[in-house]
Amino acid sequence: MDKIIENLKIIDITEEGKGVAKASGRVYFVENASLGEVIDAKITKEKKNFIEAEKKRTLKQSPYFVEPICPFFENCDGCKTMNLRYEKELELKVQMVKDKLERIGKTKVEEIDISKCQSRKHFRNKIELKVNEKGKLGYYLSKSHSLVSIDKCIVAGENTNKLIPILEEEIKELGLKGYDRKSKSGGIKNITIRENKLGELQVTLTLSELNKKVEKLFEKLMGVENIIELHYSINKDPRSEIMKNTILVHRKREYQDNIDNIRFKISPRSFFQTNSLMTGELYKEAVRQMNLTGEEKLLDLYCGIGSTSLYFAKYSKEVIGVEVVKDAVEDANLNAELNEIVVALIGEEATVKRFAYLNSEPYLFPENDNFDPIPFNREDCSIIGKVVGLIRTRV
Questions:
Q1: Which of helix, strand or coil describes residue 368?
Q2: In the chain, fewer beta carbons within 10 Å around the N or the C end?
Q3: pLDDT tens, residue by residue, 2-52
């Protein structure tokens, strides 16, 4: 027998998108609930300090409600606040930052300015799609392997959306299936699509195995106009669907994107900021707040392909970037050359603290570098972990 709690008013939203309510001295975290609405909810789990629940019905609509622009919003839980007025969504994000600063950083901040995204559509330059046993494409529901089938994603790029039905049609025609963990059957674990500002696509299939049907799919995708790079990755771990080392199948030209006037080569496994519309604005604001004079030396941990390192290089004397993914380190050095920023790759298998171990030999930052001591001791190194390159950029 379901246990229902009635007339819950949602007073807040968590970072994971759950509604927060209080009743009879208890705190409720409710799935699929929106800020400001009054609901009945089914209790799914009771704990000492809080109760988890899911919305059964809406009794009173939220005053901040707007019709979601995505037709899959009700079933797909990827965009939790798309049914709220954008101004209210921004308020929620500001409050989340304030709460963290106070709770974790023990710092009280009165005012926080937030920059609006130029659009709630087509701002995301990367998506990862799953495939089910019937060949349908979509996203997993959070904390599950239940697939929500989609034929478009409103936050993804326009050419990405044109590709989704093409992919699904070809996958069904070839009789390919998504990987199923329970039966350990099916070949496609993940389809990753990137789209740059020119509308060019990089597509990577993560597979349990390579077979003739997949090779036939590659042949079909090579003919798709906007796909300029096609890769695959083999992951035989029955419990994992993540992309591992990739193999290039086809390239019309190198996949690149840009932040302002800085260009970046991006490998399939490398991280690049996913919001194409706002990344440049974020970096500009950081430069403004840092009041850089051009004499500073900056340390960029987890620097990825060097997007932050290379952007800030033109505003500072020196930037040192540290990264754990080998492909990203290689991209970072290529990107420095691409943008005519001088780079020296400092070794492999480096561990960062006050100095970096390079091929088992300690490298100390030269005394005349005037670099402030890096605040890591041996114990702190576990936070940074092993890195495969230490990138130093100069302008």
A1: helix
A2: N
A3: 899 999 999 999 988 899 999 989 999 999 899 999 999 999 999 988 999
Q: What is the dihedral of CA 107, 302, 382, 290, to 10 degrees?
A: -30
- Cα–Cα distances in angstroms (integers) from residue 133 to residues 128, 171, 177, 182, 198, in the given order: 17, 11, 5, 12, 33
Three-class DSSP category at 9:
strand
Helix axes 212-222, 158-174, angle to 10 degrees: 140
Residue position matching structure tokens 């990203």: 328
Instruction: State the CB neighbour count (10 A cutoff) for residue 385.
Output: 11
Give the tokens for residue 297: 């030396």
Tokens (6 digits) for 298: 């900056």
Question: What would the mean pLDDT of 355-381 be, rounded to a whole number?
Answer: 38
Task: State the Rg of the chain over Cα.
Answer: 24
Instruction: Read off the tokens for 58.
Output: 């809406």
User: For residue 201, is pLDDT > 80?
Assistant: yes
Helix (H) or strand (E) holding 250: strand 246-251
